[in-house]
Amino acid sequence: MTSIPEPSFADRRSRSIARRAVALSTLAAAGLALAAGPALAAGADVGADLPWWAWPLSLFFVCFALGIVAVPAGVGGGVLFVPIVSGFFPFHLDFVRGTGLLVALASALSAGPSLLRAGLADLRLALPLALLASASSIAGALIGLAMPAQVVQISLGVTILGIVALMASAPKSEAGASVTPDRLAAALAIHGVYHDRATGRNHPWNVHRTPLALVLFTGIGVLAGMFGMGAGWANVPVLNLVMGAPLKVSAGTSGFILSLVDSSAAWVYLHKGATLAVLTVPSVIGMMLGAQIGARLLSVLKASVVRKLVLGLLLFAGARALQKGLGFAG
Questions:
Q1: How buried is residue 281: exposed, middle or buried, by Cβ count under 10 Å (0-12/13-18/19+)?
Q2: Backbone phi, psi, residue 190, to 5°
Q3: Number of domains in the chain
Q4: CA-to-CA distance for 55 and 49, rounded, in angstroms?
Q5: Theoretical Cys-Cys bridge with 50: which of 54, 62, 178, 211, CB 3.0 to 4.6 Å?
Q6: pLDDT tens profile 239-287
């Protein structure tokens, strides 16, 4: 009769961390709901009944929860921040978009060192793509600020719901595709090996379709600047499905790309005066603290766990943004 071997200390520790990660993700969702509770219950008119400090405090807790779930999902903080805050907080959309870029930037910068140390973000993969996306995000920011707020709100709602459909239907490869690198990828030496702590395995990876990815990231930059919500939702599918990079490398590299793209677009909003300290400061602090936890969760948490939570939040926020843009909400 064969005996079942006892799990090693490393396996037990990994499982313990994974259990704590799931618990933290659940608490993040609960904290998000509690922080946004007053706005959800009473709509935009609640601003007249609450003291001014209630909104910055709510923003802090909302962004802390968003930072925890955004980094493991690879979507950045802005894609969650803009539709949720514009839908449930009494701030003009231009200020929300400007802050959304700074929030996404803070999340990416906070998580960046941890992702690089863990081998989950790759500089050679990120830099060529971020170069084009950064330039096009400036054009997107100028276009977005020139559009009427109602048009932007409707476009935002449609885009968010489209993101939900894309993320829900797109198959994702955890280990990446087995690909032969194209000439451009080979010339730029875009390849690597990462260690997956969740499985204990090493995954060598290469990428292909690099010219197509460069074109796609140019369009992604325009959308990132136009809506002020970063572009992690688009970065990850392109890196994973188009280029064939592993899912965790795609999520980690996406966060690093956001730090370059969002900094370019954010300068346009800063120059136009589309930022408010009372909105930006608590949001950025909360997002940076949450992103520190999120970066650690990426190493041990299955991406599908956080992905389901993000899909639910985006579906809810996208419907609210569309509702406001069409005039059915205050």
A1: middle
A2: -90, 95
A3: 1
A4: 11
A5: 54
A6: 888 888 887 788 788 878 887 888 888 888 888 888 888 888 998 898 8
